[in-house]
Amino acid sequence: DGGITQSPKYLFRKEGQNVTLSCEQNLNHDAMYWYRQDPGQGLRLIYYSQIVNDFQKGDIAEGYSVSREKKESFPLTVTSAQKNPTAFYLCASSAGTGANTEAFFGQGTRLTVV
Amino acid sequence: GENVEQHPSTLSVQEGDSAVIKCTYSDSASNYFPWYKQELGKRPQLIIDIRSNVGEKKDQRIAVTLNKTAKHFSLHITETQPEDSAVYFCAAPANQAGTALIFGKGTTLSVSS
Questions:
Q1: Residue B93 DSSP symbol
Q2: Dihedral angle over CA of B52, B66, B10, B42, nearest 10
Q3: Between A40, A59, A108, which is nearest B43 by CB?
Q4: What does the pLDDT look like over B35-77, one tens digit per residue?
C-alpha cells in the first residue's frame, strides 16, 4: 500500500482545538486533494493544489486550511471554526495538473472531536 | 461549477444479475467521467473511466456509457458477484479548467448469493 500515506488513521481531539492531518505521496504527482466523506454525502472537496505553493478552495473550505510547501506533502488543518469536524478525511493525488487522470487515494483519517 | 447527481443511493441484486447506476452532470463542457469503487473500510479506487469523445467503454464485466446530449453517464455491471458489493462513486471535473473532481453521493451495491 505505498504511494500516498495519511496519518494517523484515527485521531481524537477536544472541541476548540486545531488539528493537522498529514498526507504524503511518493508518486511524484503534481496535484493533491482533500475530501471529506460523511455517510450519504459522498466525497466533498475541501481544498486542492495543482502545484507547490498554490492551492484552491473546494466546495466546503470553510473552517479548514492547507499548505503545499513541498510537492510530496499536503497537510490539512481542521480549525476550531469548522462547526462539524467529526468525519472521515481522504487525501488524493493525481499526475499532471488536471482532474482527467486517475486519482489515487490515501487510506483516510477518521477524526473524532469530543 | 459542476453538480453531479447519482442514483440510486442503494441497490440490491441477486448474484448473476446486472446492476446499473446512473449519474447526471450539469456542465456541458465536462469531458471526463470516472467511476470509483470503495469497499468497506478501504480507500476509493478507479474502476473505469470514459472521455467525452466516446459513447461507451467496456472492461470485462464493467461498462460505462455516456450520453452527452442528455448529460448523463451510467455504470453497468453484468453477472454480479458478492465481491462487487461496495460503494460506487461517479465523478466529473469540478470546473472548466478540470483541476479537481466532484463526486456523486455514492451508491451502495449489495450482491446476495
A1: E
A2: -40
A3: A108
A4: 999 999 999 999 999 998 889 999 999 999 999 999 999 999 9
How many percent of chain B have pLDDT more than 90? 82
Interface residues of B toward A, Cβ cutoff 8 Å, are 1, 6, 9, 31-32, 34, 36, 42-46, 49, 51, 89, 93-94, 97-106
Q: Cell 460505462 identifies what position?
A: B64
What are the pLDDT digits (tens) for A101-113?
Answer: 789 999 999 999 9
Taking all residues of chain B, what is their mean pLDDT, rounded to a whole number?
Answer: 94
A8-50 residue pLDDT tens = 999 999 999 999 999 999 999 999 999 999 988 899 999 999 9
How close is the nearest chain A Cα to the Cα of B1, in Å? 9
The CA–CA distances, whole Å, from B90 to A27, A30, B16, B27, B40 equal 24, 23, 23, 15, 17
Distance CA A27, CA B107 (A): 29
Q: Which DSSP symbol is given to A73?
A: B
- N-term to C-term CA, chain B: 41
Place of cell 478525511: A89
Q: In a 3-state reduction of DSSP, which class is residue B83?
A: helix
Which amino acid does the sequence have at B17?
D
Residue B82's Cβ-count burial label (10 Å; 0-12, 13-18, 19+) is exposed
Most distant CA atoms of chain A, gap in Å: 39
